[in-house]
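Saturday, quiet lab. Running sequence design on the structure tokens for the scaffold JK sent over.
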């Protein structure tokens, strides 16, 4: 009998269809039973409750072992939506002292969260007060599906160093997406070391698996607690900050806008990091955190902006020691080289003003008197040396690389979030302004005195001072001295060498010492401390000039390097020098012999009307300003 090939083909088609259908069913069953956690959660939730146990957050101490930040118990009201049974919402709201509208808003917000699940813990209200906790504890049995979870809040022994410490806040969607450690309602570090050392401070969460019967009543720990996981406390931090020096610095900067940075030169440990105006870190704790944060954020003086590491300012004459070092290393000058100063630098039709002093002048007296002309001539001769460099732009690139060696133009990589890089221009920057190869030394001569396009953070200025104190190197500045159980991070001990010979640093040090004993910094001379310093008066096109200072001591065994920057403070000798020398004396001696000067600094305000939109009181020039005008 002849075969019917069409029927034969149809058999294979039907068979193939049946195989595909079976495979689809198998795949769907796999997804439902293995791939989709929803059904697993549903099944488990009928028998088990996983209760998260939050670890104790690491404590924070200062360099002398004084406790700065510790933990205080706090309580959150948590619910598992699936387990919530009908309850008296009026009684519930009265117990928590909230309105029905607030209740509905909280429920809606929770349900609209992208991480909402009816089978897992959801936070209904955090940071319960002691009274709320007490009232609720007595009535909790009336509200099935709700329970209380213990958390921690940060507490502070000192109301200073808010910019260093930071705070903790509730995680947002991005935090949860970036780190599977977090769940909705968890807390994370925000700003300061709380943020940069979050993974060390937070510890590891624990959990308890509780079993319940068919009526939903807790019967005890599943498997007698064998599956429970104990929490692991976070690592404690020992900061390099001296909290008493920090408090003293914040007091001196009261009523001023600016920063103080103090560094131990040999180690790079930051002794004080003051940003002014500041705020009490306790403001960002508990129920009022959101309200207080909003007020700080909208404050016109920007207390949340850490000026010590984020503020980028023209460094002014604090820049000059670095220029002398470059010029000596590049053989542009030596200690005998003298340049004229006719009340300023005059070249062609260009004039950069200066104050009265002897002329011609050499390097060390130029640092002593803060002569603008000397450093302008030095940069001009370096950039105009075509026989050595080939072009102005190539000479400028050589100059810039030295500045990078000093830590300018790039982030120093301090262990705090938000650091600014400041600004050191390159040749391409000026090519865009003037045209390629169409600019000369006179076009950018203000760079020589820390003006023009130059910008630096107070941290970078202090780091330059530490580099000079060390005679040629710096350690990456850092605020954490030790992580308990971990040690010191590698980047905190990295040494950065400049390419400048040590002997040239000795010349800069001698010039800075002369500035204190008989020059622009003489107001900061403290017998027995051998302070070396350099003032800075940075021009400000928006109002009164900025007052700056950098200094270190003792001269031959440096233990502290300081930078001070006061916005709209006028001459460097007006605020920079007194505040800087007071900080040095306080650290080296534990006290100050100049209480009157300290009181004057802490009770003098420099808030500028022009910069901050207030009617500025009429100012009269002080005696110290008149004296400084003669020398800087």
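Result came back. Writing it out in full:
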């Amino acid at each position: 009998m002849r075969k019917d090939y069409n029927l034969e083909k149809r058999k294979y088609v039907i068979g193939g269809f049946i195989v595909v259908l079976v495979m689809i069913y198998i795949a769907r069953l796999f997804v439902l039973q293995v791939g989709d956690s929803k059904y697993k959660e549903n099944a488990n939730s009928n028998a088990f409750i996983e209760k998260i146990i939050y670890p104790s957050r690491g404590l924070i101490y200062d360099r002398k072992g004084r406790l700065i930040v510790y933990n205080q118990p706090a309580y959150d009201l948590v619910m598992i939506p699936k387990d919530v049974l009908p309850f008296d919402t009026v009684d519930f709201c009265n117990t928590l002292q909230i309105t029905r509208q607030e209740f509905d808003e909280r429920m809606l917000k929770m349900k609209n969260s992208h991480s909402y699940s009816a089978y897992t813990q959801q936070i209904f209200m955090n940071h319960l007060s002691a009274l709320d906790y007490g009232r609720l504890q007595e009535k909790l049995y009336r509200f099935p599906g709700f329970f209380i979870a213990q958390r921690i809040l940060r507490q502070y022994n000192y109301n200073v160093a808010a910019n260093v410490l930071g705070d903790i806040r509730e995680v947002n969607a991005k935090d949860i997406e970036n780190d599977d450690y977090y769940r909705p309602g968890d807390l994370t570090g925000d700003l300061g070391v709380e943020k940069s050392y979050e993974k060390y401070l937070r510890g590891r969460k624990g959990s308890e698996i509780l079993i319940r019967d068919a009526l939903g009543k807790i019967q005890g720990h599943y498997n007698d607690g064998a599956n429970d996981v104990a929490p692991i406390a976070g690592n404690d931090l020992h900061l390099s900050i001296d909290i008493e020096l920090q408090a003293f610095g914040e007091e001196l900067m009261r009523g001023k806008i600016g920063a103080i940075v103090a560094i131990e030169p040999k180690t790079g440990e930051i002794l004080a990091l003051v940003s002014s105006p500041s705020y009490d870190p306790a403001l960002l704790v508990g129920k009022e955190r959101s309200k207080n944060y909003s007020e700080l954020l909208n404050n016109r003086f920007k207390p949340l902006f850490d000026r010590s590491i984020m503020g980028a300012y023209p460094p002014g004459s604090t820049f000059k020691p670095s220029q002398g070092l470059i010029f000596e290393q590049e053989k542009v000058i030596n200690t005998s080289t003298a340049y004229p100063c006719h009340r300023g630098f005059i070249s062609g039709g260009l004039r950069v003003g200066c104050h009265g002093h002897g002329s011609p002048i050499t390097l060390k007296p130029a640092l002593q008197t803060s002569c603008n002309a000397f450093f302008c001539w030095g940069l001009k001769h370096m950039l105009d040396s075509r026989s050595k460099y080939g072009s102005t732009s190539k000479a400028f690139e050589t100059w810039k690389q030295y500045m990078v060696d000093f830590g300018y133009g790039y982030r120093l990589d301090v262990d705090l979030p938000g650091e600014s890089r400041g600004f050191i221009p390159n040749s391409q920057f000026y090519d865009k302004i003037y045209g390629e190869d169409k600019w000369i030394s006179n076009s950018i001569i203000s760079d020589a005195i820390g003006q023009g396009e130059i910008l630096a953070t107070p941290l970078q200025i202090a780091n330059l001072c530490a580099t000079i104190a060390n005679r040629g190197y710096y350690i990456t500045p850092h605020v954490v001295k030790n992580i308990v159980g971990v040690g010191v991070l590698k980047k905190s001990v990295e040494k950065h060498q400049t390419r400048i010979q040590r002997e040239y640093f000795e010349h800069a040090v001698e010039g800075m010492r002369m500035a204190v004993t008989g020059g622009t910094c003489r107001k900061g001379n403290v017998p027995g401390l051998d302070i070396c310093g350099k003032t800075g008066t940075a021009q400000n096109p928006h109002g009164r000039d900025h007052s700056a200072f950098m200094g270190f001591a003792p001269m031959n065994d440096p233990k502290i390097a300081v930078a001070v920057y006061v916005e709209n403070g006028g001459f460097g000798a007006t605020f920079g020098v007194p505040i800087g020398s007071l900080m040095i004396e306080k650290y080296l001696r534990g006290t100050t012999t100049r209480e009157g000067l300290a009181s004057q600094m802490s009770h003098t305000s420099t808030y500028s009307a022009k910069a901050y939109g207030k009617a500025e009181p009429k100012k009269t020039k002080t005696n110290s300003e008149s004296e400084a005008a003669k020398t800087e």
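Notes for JK: Confidence is low (pLDDT under 50) at residues 608-631. The radius of gyration is 33 Å. Ask whether to fix the surface positions before the next round.
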